[in-house]
Structures are given as C-alpha cells and as structure tokens.
Amino acid sequence: MKMTLLLKGAVCLLAGGLSLTAATTTLTGTISDDMCGADHSGMPHSGKKIDARDCALECAKAGSKFVFVSGGNLYAIANQNLADLSAHAGHNVKVTGDLSSDGKTLTVTKVEMLH
Fold first, then answer.
1. Rounded Cα–Cα distance for residues 26 and 6 (Å)
2. Backbone φ and ψ of 37, nearest 5°
3. Distance between CA atoms of 77 and 108, rounded to whole angstroms?
4. Predicted confidence (pLDDT) per residue in 30-43, tens digit
5. Which residues contact 10 (CB under 8 A, 6 or more apart)?
6. 82 Cβ neighbours under 8 A, 6+ residues apart
7. If you count DSSP H runs as helices and E runs as strands, how many of each does the chain have, helices first?
C-alpha cells in the first residue's frame, strides 16, 4: 500500500515537472532556414542572388528546416508544418511560442509581422 502511494506520488511529481520543461516567450527576429541562418548573402540559387525570403523558401523546399534568428541566437523550430513559417519566411516578425528548457528549440504558436 505504501509503495503504491509512493509510486503515485512520484508519477504526480514527474508529470508536474514535465510542464516546466518549456517556457512561453515572445521574441523578435527573422524566420530563416538552417542552411543559411542569419546570412543569405552567399547563397546563389541557379547562379543568381536572391532576397532572404526567396532564399529561405527555396532552401526549405530543398530540405532545410525553418529556424528563428533573434539577437544573434538561432533557434530550431519544432513545429515545421506551421503555415505561418513559410508565409513569413525572411520577414522581420514577432513570434510567441514555447522555448525548450535548453533554450535551443522554439515551438511557435503565433507569428506577427513587425512594421
């Protein structure tokens, strides 16, 4: 009986701790791709240079993952299927989402254009 109560208590503590693994945050920056990161200047596509938006979209089509660049930091984006990522690739935006406990991965819940 005591062991069952102890086990249930441990499960409750672990479940409660799991909710602390991600922190909701809002950041400003640019949606890019993991091949180019913050700098698209050196990436010729079909022999021509293109802007950051078109570069990020072409790289994503070729298999790169979308990332978020903010304040010199590059964050992996967990939910690659979010439509707002391709809609706002290369744009300066404000994103809201859950930041992983290691501070490296962002699960984006909202993307807003900056003016």
1. 39
2. 65, -125
3. 7
4. 999 999 998 877 66
5. none
6. 108, 111
7. 3, 7
User: What are the start-end ranges of the H helices in 22-82?
Assistant: 52-61
Contact in structure between 98 and 107 (CB atoms under 8 Å)? yes
Q: Judging by beta carbons within 10 Å of its beta carbon (0-12, 13-18, 19+), is residue 32 exposed, middle or buried? A: buried
Pick the CATH number of 22-113 from 3.10.20, 2.40.50, 2.120.10, 1.10.10: 2.40.50
Cα(36)–Cα(80) distance, rounded to whole angstroms?
16
pLDDT, tens only, 13-60: 444 444 455 789 999 999 999 999 988 776 666 677 788 999 999 999
Count of CB atoms situated within 10 Å of the CB of 33: 26
Q: Is the pTM of this model over 0.85?
A: no
Check: CB of residue 32 under 8 Å from CB of residue 54. Answer: no
